[in-house]
Amino acid sequence: MGRGKIEIKRIENNTNRQVTFCKRRNGLLKKAYELSVLCDVEVALIVFSSRGRVYEYANNNIRSTIERYKKSTSDSSNAYTTQEINAQFYQQESKKMHHQIQMLQNSNRHLLGEGLGSLNVKELKQLETRLERGIARIRAKKHEMILAETEFLHKRELQLEQENAYLRAQILERERLQQFSMMPAGQDYNIQSYFTSNALQLNMMETTSVYDPVSDKPALNLG
Asked: Interior CA angle at 11 toward 7 and 17, to 5°?
């Protein structure tokens, strides 16, 4: 079976694009070598990858070949000026960017279920698979966030219970202190009166006369 035709457009998958680049680059370098040998022509090939790496082949000195090319194009009356070349380059880049933007907009519309009339059955199945995978990832993330929030709320509940128990203990302690400070209001006065009367009795007992055998007179014990 022969190889099927490949649509010539930018490959969106990075891995596939890199593999295709390596294969076709090697094939291009091989073709340049074969052309230079079979036809005895001067060939210079320069390729810049999307990552900025340069690949080149020349059967002669590549700088001399470039200088020969510059001289040939400068002598031509139809040669483009630098400004025209830059303008064409930016125009091509603008078209590429516009095409990419259009593709992204169409992809977003398809994800929203719009503009599906231009898709065939295979493309619709691919879109359905993408949506199912996306929904699965969204649900997994939602469940992860719910579990994390539940765990946080449980820890917060335990913390609030501990704080509530601590506050209750503080309130009970203050109520006991308040009751103790309020209950002795009358009792404290009685106790103080009791101790005052006892102190007076003790003082009177201490100031009673004590017989002094020397002076034959009662002596006062002044403490």
From this structure: 125
Q: What is the pLDDT of residue 164?
A: 94
Q: What is the DSSP letter of 50?
A: T
Q: Please identify which residue in the block is written with the tokens 């599906």.
A: 116
Domain boundaries, the chain: 14-79, 86-116, 120-180
CA-to-CA separations, 57 to 53, 66, 218, in angstroms, rounded: 14, 12, 141
pLDDT at 80 (0 to 100): 57
According to DSSP, the β-strands at 54-58 and 209-212 are: unpaired
Structure tokens at 162: 């501990």
Residue among 13, 4, 17 nearest 51 (CA) = 17
Q: At residue 210, what are phi and psi to the nearest 5 degrees?
A: -125, 125
Please give the share of the chain, as a percent, with pLDDT higher than 70: 76
3-state DSSP: the chain helix, strand, coil percent, rounded to 5?
70, 10, 20
Residue 57, amino acid:
Y
Q: 14-79 belongs to which CATH class?
A: alpha beta
List Cβ neighbours of 65 (8 Å cut-off, separation of 6 or more): 42, 43, 44, 58
The radius of gyration of the chain's CA atoms, rounded to the nearest angstrom, is 51
Task: Please choose, from the candidates 63, 28, 65, 27, the residue with its C-alpha nearest in 3D space to the C-alpha of residue 43.
Answer: 65
CA–CA distance, 92 with 96 (Å, rounded to integer): 6
